[in-house]
Amino acid sequence: MTLPSVQRVSDTRIDKVVPLVSPALLHHELPLDDDLSAAVVEGRRAVARVLDREDDRLLVVVGPCSVHDPVAALEYADRLAETAARLADDLLIVMRVYFEKPRSTVGWKGLINDPGLDGSGDVNTGLRTARSLLLQVLRKGLPVGCEFLDPITPQYIADTVSWGAIGARTVESQVHRQLASGLSMPIGMKNRPDGAISTAVDAIRAAAVPHVFPGIDVSGTPAILHTRGNADCHLVLRGGRGGPNYGAEDVAGALDLLRAAGLPERLIVDASHDNSGKDHTRQPGVALDVAGQLAAGQRGIVGIMLESFLVPGRQDLDPTRPLSYGQSITDACMGWDTTVEVLEGLAAAHR
User: Fold this and answer.
1) Between 198-207 and 174-182, two packed helices, what is the crossing angle to 10 degrees?
2) Where is the DAHP synthetase I/KDSA domain (predicted)?
3) CA separation for the pair 306, 96 (Å, rounded)
4) What b/e readout covers 142-171, taking b as 16+ CB neighbours within 10 angstroms?
5) Domain CATH code at residue 103
6) Is the pTM here over 0.70, yes or no?
7) Within a domain: 10
8) CA dist 76 to 60, 71, 161, 167, 340, Å?
9) Structural domains in the chain (count)
10) Rounded CA gap, 59 and 163, in Å?
11) 6 in a domain, yes or no?
């Protein structure tokens, strides 16, 4: 009797497998010292106080769409730290330091996935580069905000983060709702790309309760994670395919949905994405509208998000020519001078 040949049944579409550094080893190489730990905890508490209106400042999450050049990001952090200190009576400024870029189809997936900007996928280098940058931003006195996309990544960097986001494309995912329920910082839930807000409201409710799910622990070992639930989740309005949703009527409608769900009536307006038609020159107009609502007494808006970098606009990632320093390679961003004007306008509206 002839036995059939053994057929490969696993990993038939995997080209290669590369060992992944453990979170514990990365933390050992790039430690969060006691002073920085205290700064992260205080940043989280400050954001939570704004969300709960114990602190009446406006939360502003501002920075590049997605970091691709750590050197330029640090120069941006230097400038932002000075501005944040100057406007601290009115604004709680958190630097947007995003490393994971969700794609509708294909494209550069962010610094962690592809730090070489060449498709080589050197994730270990990406994780080290990302954590190193986060520690340097913290040392400048700025709280950090990140979007969490891959469910494993938080074990490597979440200890440095004071505000987090679940994006429009993942807000409906049970995996990300479970993840948010166990994260140690306030989490903003964005409405879906089609503009639907109820899905984000459902996500806030789901993340507020305990969950049990498989993941990894800090050693990188597979583990069952039991969460307590995250009461600091909140809504982020980013517009949708049907148009923007930052206007007074849209904000009132979103607050009604939160009230009907028994959730705190608070939200953040994202001035970019579909609220600006992905046109960076329209972000100041969105901020001006939000400032007007704040000045008119709208207390449901507790924060705003801005996409901003050193140089306005965006550029394509083209291997045949060098990149312009300080300009986004993903969504178009406001330049630095415009950013300062917008931040000062928001501070004035708060006053």
Assistant:
1) 50
2) 50-343
3) 9
4) bbbbbbbbbbebbbbbbbbbbbbbbbbebb
5) 3.20.20.70
6) yes
7) no
8) 15, 9, 18, 23, 12
9) 1
10) 10
11) no
* Residue 151, domain member (yes or no): yes
CA distance readout (Å), 242 to 34, 173, 184, 196: 47, 22, 34, 10
pLDDT tens for the chain, 351 residues long, are: 555 555 678 889 999 999 999 999 999 999 999 999 999 999 999 999 999 999 999 999 999 999 999 999 999 999 999 999 999 999 999 999 999 987 766 788 999 999 999 999 999 999 999 999 999 999 999 999 999 999 999 999 999 999 999 999 999 999 999 999 999 999 999 999 999 999 999 999 999 999 999 999 999 999 999 999 999 999 999 999 999 999 999 999 999 999 999 999 999 999 999 999 999 999 999 999 999 999 999 999 999 999 999 999 999 998 889 999 999 999 999 999 999 999 999 999 988
Tokens of 282: 């329209």
Interacting residues of 154 by C-beta distance below 8 A, sequence separation 6+: 148, 179, 183
Tell how far CA 18 is from the center of its chain. Answer: 27
Name the residue range of residue 221's domain.
23-350
